[in-house]
Amino acid sequence: MHDQTLTGLAAALAAGEFSSRELTEHLLARIERHDGVLNSFITVTGEQALAAADAADAARARGEAGPLIGLPLALKDIFCTRGVKTSCGSKMLDTFTAPYDATVVEKLAAAGTLSLGKTNMDEFAMGSSNENSHYGPVKNPWDLGAVPGGSSGGSAAAVAAGLVPAALGTDTGGSIRQPAAFCGITGLKPTYGRVSRYGMVAYASSLDQAGPMARSASDCAHLLGAIAGHDLRDSTSVARGVPDYTEGLEAPLSGLKIGLPKEYFGDGLSAEVESAVREAIKVYESLGATVREVSLPHTHYAIPAYYVIAPAEASSNLSRYDGVRFGHRCENPTDLIDLYKRSRAEGFGEEVKRRILIGTHTLSEGFFDAYYKQAQKVRRLIRQDFLDAFEAVDVLMGPASPTPAFDLGANKDPVSMYLQDIYTIAVNLAGIPGISVPAGFAGGRPVGLQILGTHFAEAQLLNVAHQFQQATDWHLRRPDLAEETA
Amino acid sequence: MQWETVIGLEVHVQLATRSKIFSGASTAFGAEPNTQACAVDLGLPGVLPVLNEQAVAMAVQFGLGIHAEIPEVSVFDRKNYFYPDLPKGYQTSQMYEPIVGPGEVEILLDDGERKTVRVHHAHLEEDAGKSLHEDFHGMTGIDLNRAGTPLLEIVSEPDMRSAKEAAAYLKAIHSIVTYLGISDGNMAEGSMRCDVNVSVRPKGQEAFGTRAEIKNVNSFRFVERAIEFEVERQVELLEDGGKVVQETRLFDPEADETRSMRTKEEANDYRYFPCPDLLPVVLDQAYVDHLRGNLPELPAAKRERFQNELGLSAYDAGVLSASRAMAEYFERVHEVCGDAKQAANWVQGELSGALNREGLAIADSPVSADQLGGLIVRVIDDTINGKAAKQVFQALWHGEGGGENNSADAIIEAKGLKQVTDTGAIEAMIDQVIADSPAQVAQYRDAEPDKRGKMIGYFVGQVMKASRGTANPQQVNKLLKEKLDALC
User: Is the ipTM of this complex over 0.85?
Assistant: First the structure.
């Protein structure tokens, strides 16, 4: 039951093979059994989940239909959930219970899904390994000595470990695609503006985007259809119709033009990852696609530009955590400045503080033009690189990450950690969609193939990913959860 | 040395939108603390702003009202600083690309002279909450009801040269925003506040002196007093060989002085950057044209019209067009009575006097424009004389006459104030007075002819008294003179 895709579970529920309650109970038991070691959940909402499962079973008995009714999911702990702790992986919000639901949470509930709980993450979504969580690191289910990736590491690990069939993550610089790659699941970052950000705790507002993490492209298509769409509460969400993303999944790929950005196959790329990715591309060729090399000449500016823009926005977004209204407040402040200083010093972790400092610096008088404005110019160039490439090819393909999941504690130096996102970060700067699909293994750890499309080309990406999954079985591989996690 | 004062004003006008600039919470004044602050106003994690279209329309209307350029694109920026009543740790404002570009405001000085003050730009921003220091011991309360209230900040060029000019400019802005109906202009409730930039320089010098910024001055009178104090302080400082430092000062109305708040060195670095949660505001020409087509007549145009078409003096036209309420009242009185001069005299004379005595705004006048117009009609058609008219006005003021538009007629009827114009009746009263005043008649007769004019007053008074004020005074005068002169 726990190894099935969402689509498979939906069919089983519809056929009455088991009830939503039975499925939920089973998964809650697995969480109970394995998550002590994996640490993929911050909060498990078992009671609410069972009540929602009963409601879904009752709805189904009344004849209500819908592809997602009664399916259990998990939510990255960055999404506000009414009455449930929303910590964003931070001590700052350890005591924060959201008084409202994020738009995507409302939409998933309206589609009939239920939530098993809130998944672990790097604090305020800042990190590539899930080691920056106040609640401790998440273990990679494929190898307990490896990181699951970040920042949506909890969501990725929970799905990979069969604790939940699918989860929501967010992606600001690769936070869906990289952990999906590290954990051997499928993760989609939609076009910026495709999914409402209302109720998603902000890290870098012009880059943040929520998306599905699941066991197949088809599952992602179902979930994207449920969460996408214009939201009057988010001015940056785009007023554009939501297609049925499942409709075109089966379209053949003959004639598909694939571009391989030469910058994504250079120094620093592990040979094993490269060979897995090149094998995957051969599969596409066998499906009738043509492949050519393209160039994204400003790629090497993406990480520097990102680490100006994202921290700048973060420094401002995180100013509201001041100990005055909600969140962590220091004990016995002597005056206002003491309240600010100690609440923030105690509430934020090291990486968050580092980015606040970087952002505060780059926005300062005298530095703004040299950093922030320059980074925005670079951002436009990077976006143009992609638009130019999509004039020549339909999709771009490459590795999601230069290496497979690395060992816990391996990247102590922040800059080497930042470099992990070299293939994912430019995508956020350009605002285009990207998907990571399982494409083999390197040293026993999963490898992700990243597929990129132009703005609002999600349907195409899902089709291209789905066809790969029809031709391969990498996405069906499951980690053998050793007894040590039990 | 002769000194010249240079003043620039930043006026914050609270826009009269129903909901806040970035949320659906109400903007009503005076509610219990924190009852009008929603998740967005509280800056809860995950919330996002949505721009209030009404605030945009109001800002554009203001721009059109001061003949300003309206840029096609404007952008919201974040102004970052920590303060307990600033929930997000930044204020959403417009630093680099404001919604209203350069424009100008005409001001009217006391001597009737006009002057143009240039407006550098006007931008939209959100207000902060309020810190309440009084009610809590050793703690500060925060009321976020005001947080997110839309403000239009109007930034002038340093074009004013005296406290009086600054006050006149502030009044002109007040009258424009209230005419447009985009603000209630209530300074006591903080709907209009201003920051005043003041510097002095030797007369004839082109370069500006170092300026001080006086924060949060909230009345026309305080603006004048703050500037006067500040100019005196700066001049004294300079004449004593000192230097003015660039700083922010506070005006203390109690002590009637300005005090230093912080110097430039202590100033915040606000780290402005474009707000990534809001899209640039793009105004298409049709939208702007639509607003332009629906602008009400503004004070300057009204003043012109009152002068040129209604024949009012520059002074009267200025006073009567100063506020929309005043102008509308006057125009209605004029419409009813048909005589602009009479209408102007009554509104500025009897009515304004009574309102001032009671401290009432014209909107709260117990005498309606229709009632006052009805009263003036009766003066014009000689139904009552001027003295009786004042009596009728007093009665209207106190709610007599039934409160209808024709209350004046009811009062005239009830009090028997109808003017006596029947020559026979007046003659009879005159004959009686002459018969009853032999001594005065004798004096009149014995006086030199050129002294008699003054003496006739006694007889007029007696006749008016006999008529209980209702006799037509011009007729009484004329007939008395004829009859007395006939006796000489």
Answer: yes
Residues of A in contact with B20 (CB under 8 A): none
Mean pLDDT computed over A40-59: 97
Cβ within 8 Å of residue B276, ≥6 positions away: A204, A205, A206, A236, A313
In a domain, B212, yes or no: yes
Specify whether A175 is catalytic: yes
Taking a C-beta distance cutoff of 8 angstroms, is the pair A208, A197 a contact?
yes
Among A234, A236, A324, the strongest candidate for a mutation testing the B interface, having the largest count of B CBs within 10 A, is A324
Mark whether B161 and B263 lie in a shared domain: yes
- Does the beta-carbon distance from A363 to B80 stay under 8 Å? yes
**What is the amino acid identity at position B217?**
V
Q: Which residues of B touch A99 (CB under 8 A)?
A: 39, 44
Same domain, yes or no: B343 and B434: no
Distances (CA, A) of A36 to A117, A215, A278: 14, 22, 37
One domain, residues B226 and B306: no
With respect to residue B292, please indicate whether it lies within any of the assigned structural domains: no
B147 and B241 both lie in a single domain: yes
Q: What is the extent of the structural domain holding B470?
A: 423-487
Interface contact flag, B48 A102, Cβ < 8 Å: no
| Crossing angle (nearest 10°) for helices B314-321 and B324-337 | 120
Query: What CATH number does domain A6-256+392-485 carry, 3.40.50.300, 3.40.190.10, 3.90.1300.10, 3.90.550.10?
Result: 3.90.1300.10
Same domain, B236 and B343: no
A51-73: per-residue pLDDT in tens?
999 999 999 999 988 899 999 99
Among candidates A164, A161, A84, A68, which has minimal Cα distance to A116?
A: A164
Give the residue-averaged pLDDT of B327-350: 96
pLDDT of residue A486: 61
- The residue annotated as part of the active site, out of A40, A128, A152, A175, is A175
Inform me whether the pLDDT recorded for B445 exceeds 90.
no
- Does residue B439 sit in the same domain as residue B408? no
Is residue A187 over pLDDT 90? yes
Is a pLDDT exceeding 70 seen at residue A479?
Answer: yes
Strands B130-132, B141-143: pairing is antiparallel
Distance from C-alpha of A430 to C-alpha of A445, rounded to nearest angstrom: 29
Domain membership of residue B337 (yes or no) is yes
Task: Quote the CA–CA distance of A438 and B126 in Å, as a whole number.
Answer: 48
A316 to B49: CB separation less than 8 angstroms, yes or no: no
Mean pLDDT of B285-304: 94
Identify the domain boundary among B230, B259, B287. Answer: B287
- The number of distinct structural domains making up chain B is 3
Asked if B129 has any chain A CB less than 8 Å from its own CB, the reply is no
Q: Kindly list the domain boundaries of chain A, sorted by start residue.
A: 6-256+392-485
B142 touches chain A (CB under 8 A): yes
pLDDT value for A1: 87
Averaged pLDDT, B220-237: 95
Is A151 among the catalytic positions? Answer: yes
